[in-house]
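ESCALATION

Customer reports they have been waiting on this structure for their group meeting. Please prioritize. Original submission:
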Amino acid sequence: MSMDAAAFVAETAIPDRSALAEQLRNIEAAIEVATPEEVGNATADNTESAQVNAGSLTSFTQNLSGQSKADVKNSTLFAQLASDYAFDRYTAPMDWYKNYVGVLGQIGWNQPAFAFDTYTSGGSTVKMDEAVLNILAAIATGDEIAMVAATMEGLKGLSDDSKQMTIWNANASSGNNGTYQIMPVDKLPNDDVVMVMTGMQFRASTSHGRFLWWSWSSTSIEIKRAANRFVLNEDVYAAVRQAIIDKLGDLAQKLVADIPIRRPV
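Update from on-call: job pushed to the front of the queue and completed.
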């Protein structure tokens, strides 16, 4: 790493509350439509769980501790906010992603190749949730893919005025284009935390609020994608864990919400 991780966190700017004021007001006004029984406790040890984390959907397998889940949540939110401060995720998505992956690398995640190419569905229509699963199929396990499907199905079942959908809509898309991440997370037998990150960017001819489940003709949307496996160096992250928690403050609660896991029928 080019800079000490603690110094990097201290020097990295994120948007202040005034820049996020409208979004935070909308989130606070949103309704809680999912019961605690439905969403479970996303920070509990060894339970399947899922979250919307700003413009990311994160799925956790039952192999993860609550501490590991919290580390993934806070590190990826910090990387998003730092990148939002540096670049507009919609008008400069490739710069945003380069910064995002770079921030993750500075705070303990390895930095694999993360090169974008154009996704083609092979058919006359494109449905975004199916595209996500097709992209993941190249590098994710069957269990990881099933978790992502259940996470997207859980978000789909929530109303537009839910807290989860309000967070997602404010951070994943703007008008007819979007930039978002889909991330199943697991713990390997050697105790490494591994995250399969799919980065997506799209520009379509029309705008749709529930874009994950909309079908476009293949000629009316362009999708850029990249995917790779990231492994967390927990020794590096442990040195910045509290600094990131302090820097995020209440944003770690306001911009993150648990999602019910619903297996597609």
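Sent to customer with the following note: Residues 48-258 form a domain with the Delta-endotoxin CytB fold (CATH 3.40.198).
Escalation resolved.
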